[in-house]
Amino acid sequence: MVLGNSRCMFVALLGAPNVGKSTLLNRVVGAKISIVTPKVQTTRTRIVGIAMRGKVQIIFLDTPGIFKPRQRLQRAMVEAAWSSARQADSIVLLIDANAGLTEDSCRLITKLKDQNRPTIVALNKIDLIKPPRLLKLTSSLNTEGFFTDTFMISALTGDGVEDLVAKLAESAPTGPWLYPKDQLSDVPLRMLAAEITREKLFLQLQNELPYSTAIETEEWNERKDGGVRIDQTIYVQRNSQKMIVVGKNGTRIKSIGSVARCELEKLLERRVHLFLHVKVRRDWSERPDHYRTIGLNFNA
Ligand SMILES: Nc1nc2c(ncn2[C@@H]2O[C@H](COP(=O)(O)OP(=O)(O)OP(=O)(O)O)[C@@H](O)[C@H]2O)c(=O)[nH]1
Ligand SMILES: [Mg+2]
Fold first, then answer.
1. What is the tens place of the pLDDT at every residue in 9-65?
2. Residue 85 half-sphere exposure, CB side, CA atoms within 13 Å?
3. In the chain, where are the structural domains located?
4. What is the pairing mode between strands 90-96 and 149-152?
């Protein structure tokens, strides 16, 4: 859409796992677009969130955390993050101020320096730490001499976030908006629904189990009564995992389904009938179709 002196830009949110990228995306967009959990490697693909500030459309790219990948899915996730960075006009590197300069964050800074991409650094989770620690961290980041700007933010409380957004908006090039001004994301509803269930699964399952699961929305049927019936499959890799996901007398799956359904009803503003099916598919993480479904490169 072209509008007078409209401006538009892509901003990639990069960072190690769990630093708060998705929380920040949701905060700047003002809606829950990307799922958030206390576990690392929650986000598996690039998620677009669109923020309007006056005549500027900022298209934020939430990305999977960057770390040393070992398996195919992890490689594809990390590749999705780097490809978002390549596509973006600006890069915001998020650091968890409470965790400090972890190995993953340091490695990421080195790589960004190698690529010589101008980068803004945002120290997140400042609500968790005391000013002296924050100052120490800021000064060690400043000695890098690499970042164009430093912001201290809390994606959770919103502290400092609008200063960061304003800085980004200033640098937006003139150009037409790429999305209608009231659009918040381009994530298809079927995928958003699967992500919501995955979030509940991540929150309710312990240890490594969440990483052995994947969700796909198989059916989406409008009902005559105005509601919608959504059928989703939860893929696990072993029968023993299926037993845990289902739980004793189906209690676990019921509980996951019921919280997911509540959130879906709020999102869709209507009755949702959610049916979750658990299937063992030993090799889901080695099948190209799953990568295609969630927009990842199988051969990354
Ligand atoms: N206290 C505090 N917690 C935060 C803040 N931002 C994010 N968190 C929490 O940090 C955890 C991880 O947040 P996410 O937004 O999922 O982090 P992420 O970087 O997207 O993580 P991955 O997708 O796994 O790479 C969640 O428990 C959030 O609630 C913050 O500013 N303050
Ligand atoms: Mg995330």
1. 999 999 999 999 999 999 999 999 999 999 999 999 999 999 999 999 999 999 999
2. 23
3. 7-170, 189-294
4. unpaired
Q: Do the first three CATH levels of 7-170 and 189-294 match, i.e. the same topology?
A: no
Q: What is the CATH number of domain 189-294?
A: 3.30.300.20
Ligand index nearest the alpha carbon of residue 158: 1
In short, whether 26's Cβ falls inside 6 Å of ligand 1 is no
pLDDT band at 145 (very low <50, low <70, confident <90, very high): confident
Is the CB of residue 101 less than 8 Å from the CB of residue 134?
A: no
The type of residue at 205 is L
Strands 272-280, 90-96: pairing is unpaired
| Residue 113, C-beta contacts closer than 8 angstroms, at least 6 positions apart | 144, 146
DSSP annotation of 136: H
Q: Does domain 7-170 have CATH number 3.40.50.980?
A: no
Here the tokens at position 212 are 């052995």
**214-222 β-sheet, strand order:** 214-222, 228-236, 272-280
From 25, 36, 61, 95, the mutation candidate for ligand 1 (largest count of ligand atoms within 8 A of CB) is 36
Chain segment 223-251, per-residue pLDDT in tens? 999 999 999 999 999 999 999 999 999 99
Element (H, E) at 253: helix 251-268
E strand or H helix that includes residue 62: strand 56-62
Q: How many CB atoms lie within 10 A of CB 24?
A: 29
